[in-house]
Every structure is written in structure tokens, then in C-alpha cells.
Fold this sequence. Notes:
heterotrimer; B: mainly alpha; C: mainly alpha; 73% helix
Amino acid sequence: MSSLRIVGLIARKDLAIERRSKVAMHQVVPFAAITMVLFAFALDSSGGDSGSVIETVAVTDPPRVIRATDVLELVAPGLIWLAVLFSLLILVQRSFAVENDDGALDALRVAGVDPAAIFWGKAIALGLQLLALEIVLLAIALVLYRADLPPSGLGMLAITLITATGGLAFVGTLYGGLTAGFSGRESLLPLLVLPVVAPVLIGATRAVESAFGTDGVALSEGWPWIGLLTVFAVAFAVGGALAFGPLIDEST
Amino acid sequence: MTSTNTLPETTHATLKRAGTGTRATRILGIATIVMMVWLIAFGLGFSPADRDQEEAVRIMYVHVPTVWLAYLAFVVTAVCSALYFFTKKHSLGFDRVAGASSEIGVTFMALTLVSGMLWGRITWGVFWQWDARLTTTALLFVSYIGYLSVRRLGGSHHQRAKRSAIIGMLAVIEIPLVHWSVKLWRGLHQEATMASTDLDPKIDGLMLFSLFVGIIAFTLLYVWLLLHRTRSMALEDLLDDQGLDRALDARREEAATSGVPS
Amino acid sequence: MMENAGYIIGSYVITLSVIAAFAARVLVKARQLADQVDDDAKYWT
């Protein structure tokens, strides 16, 4: 069987498990949504349209006044990606919990399945779930945070979602595979993943800001960030495929 | 817990066992202490105040060697991880050097952050600036704490070695990406209004000498710490194996004496 | 000028005392372990 078919099979298997159990839909999406609501509680203290002035930027001419109600719109791109990062940790744990329950990962390995194919398959399934989640979170941000998305930014947004999701899915799958076998060590996954995905948070946030035109950021400013996200995704796609096999192999 | 505790007191006194020190480490240790004293004398005493930084420049003589040691330690960790992973023999010795070096690296990275913050408080007026070097260092610090946790996951020595070797090498992909992203982030937004920490190229001779003393002192310290820690890790592994053997022997004996288990 | 002296001295004190504590910990731990192992098992002796 060719590796490419195995990638497809494993991705389809993971998605089929999700279709039947609906854990991501019934638990992770609501979790991410409530996180977005809580961000609003934490950041917007006014609750009304006539927010109190919290900062006056004197550098611009005329001086710009930032009101509490504007804050959410300003930071909306960052909050979307923060919620995605938190959800990523849960999805990764879920993705490997289903493998561990019946030793499926061991069975695949014993059967001589190429570990790189397992890695790619699981990462693709994870990425597709993340992508669906991100679209929901974007919709929430547009409604709740009053962010607006100009039609010209749609292309940039789509590319950002794909590249950033790729990076997150590869890193998540890689470190998820490492921590999978250890019950009681769940807190290790965030410790390993979060510092590594910091560039994705920075890059994806700036790229979405330019797609949204948040705070007058020009669309063209997003491209260097897309470059960063692409390099990140490719680096961990390759590095992950090479490292995944020895990482999950506990035979020595 | 120790095997010596079970021996009578008289034999205990005669049974003086070697520690992890050798003649080489003792010479290194003395040299380190001498250089540290020099560093304090030159850093706090003989070296002149800087034209721009004034007295604050004195922090440099401990800060820069600390950074140097931290990054040196992480380079050694990465190299030894690769040596363990890619050589045919898969020698656990490389794994222990990598582990010992990362422990030293984490400690000195913490020191880097603290002395850097104190320096920043004087030159920038604040403890923290979101500049690329600081932020990368902070993220790297957390990453290597994660690496140390991976080392403690358990399993056989070779399982530990393989897992941590991979994590140690992945960090090498991570460092440039983190640095690049933070640099780009700061570059596009506000230019931090800070006094330059880069020193005058025409640095005073005595200042350069003091810095040099610091680098030498910390490098000696690193080698000394690395030797001791690697050896004590070898002892840990050895005792682990012995404990396992003893437990197996005990089981076998039990099975032999009790005959058919009821 | 003098208000900076605390930070300068502080950085030396913190750095050197953490180094001393770390070195002492390494030594004490190594000593404890070494006492449990025969000398011929130590590759450096």
C-alpha cells in the first residue's frame, strides 16, 4: 500500500471517529466560544457604546482616542488565535487518546506502517478540525467583537488560515505523539507546545490584522507574516515526519 | 537507603569512596574560583565607568558571560543529542552530557533573565522590553524546562535518551523561527525607545579585559559543572540498573523458596 | 547614580549566589550517589 493511501486512510479514520463521537463539535467548539466571551469580559470594562477613554495616542495627528469598546475590535485577531491555541491542546490530547485506548498506535507500528504516514494522516485530520473551528471563531469575532472583514482581505485570510493551521497541526501532532503514552503527564503537552507555536500566534495574528485592516494596517503588510507561517509549517511538516517515528517508538 | 548504612561503623570509616571529583576537576574548580574573584575585582573595582552607561556597564561583566554560558550549554545539548541519535553505538554518555548541559543551561538562562532585567531597569527604566533577544531568551527558557520534563518521563535509559535527543534537536529548528518572528513583530511596530545596549566599538581596554575574565571564568565553571553533573548522572543510571537487578533477584529468590505459589 | 548601586550589586550577588548554590547542590548530590557505588564502577577513577 502506498504511503499516500495510508495518509488518507488515517486521516479519514480520525475524522470518522470525530463524526461518530462529535467530541470536537459538542465540547471543543463550545469551549472555544465561551473563551471568546470570557475574553470580552476581561478586556471590555464598559459594556456600552460610550466606552470610557482608556488611552490617547498622541503620536498620530489628530491624536487618536482609544475607547474601551474599541479594544475588542483591535485585539480580535489575537484573541481568535489564542482561543485556537487552547483548543489545539484539547484536540491533540483527544486525537491521541483515541489511539491509546486500544493500543491502536502500537498496532499500526507493529504492522509496519510508515510512521511519517501516520504523522501526516493525523496532522491532516487535526488540521481539518482546527480549520472548521477557526471559521466558527472568526464568525464569533465578526459578530461579538465587531471586527470587520473587507472583501479584499478574504484571500489573505484564507492563506493565513491554511498556513497557520498547518503549522499548528504539525507541531500538535508531533508533541502529542510524544506525550500520548504517559497518563498523568497531560500538563507536559502545553509546556512543550506553547513556546514552539509562539511564532504562529505572532504571525497569524499580524496576518489576520492586515486582512481585517485592524487599526489601519495595510493589506500588503501581511505578506511577510504569511512567509513566516509557511516556513514554520514546512519546517515542522518535514521535521515532524522525520522525528515522529523514533519519537513514538518505545522499543529500545 | 544506602548500602553503606548496613555496614558496621568500623568498616564504614575505612570505606572511603571516591566522589565525582578527580585531580582535573579540583584544578578546574580552583581556577574557577580564582577567576571569579578576579571577575569581581575587575568588574566591580578596577574597570572604569562607561561614557554612556556609566556604572551600569558593570552588570555587563556578569550578564554577558552568563548569556554566553547559557547558549554554549544549549549548543552542547543539541550537538550531544545529535551525536547520541545519529551514531551507530547510541552511547548513553552523550545523552548524559546533553542532560547535564541542559540543566546548567536552564539555570544560567534564568540568571541571564534576572541580571538582564536589572540592567534593563537602569538603562531603559523598565525591567522588561519586548525586544527580540529578551523574548527569544524567555521562550527558549520555557522550552528547555519542557526538555528537562521530557527527560524525567521515565522508561529505560535508551527510551529517555532517544526522546530527549529528538526534543533537543527540534529546539534547533525552533530557535531561529522564534527569533525571526519576534524580530519581525517588534520591527513592524513601535521602535523601542531604549538606550542602546550595544557598546561603543572602541571599547576601553580594561573593560574588554574584564569581560574577557568573565568569559574565561564562566567557561571554566561550565566545564567543572558539566564534568560533575555528567558523572553523577552516570551514577544515577547505574543505581537505577542495580535497583532493577536487585528487585529481580528478590523476586526470583521468593519464587524459589516459596515453591508453588498458592 | 547611587540609586543604581543596588541593581548593580544585586546582579552580582544574585548571579554569584545562585552559581554557588547550584554548584553545591551538584556536588552534594554527586557525593550522595557516589557513596552508594563501588569505586571500580566509576569510569573516571
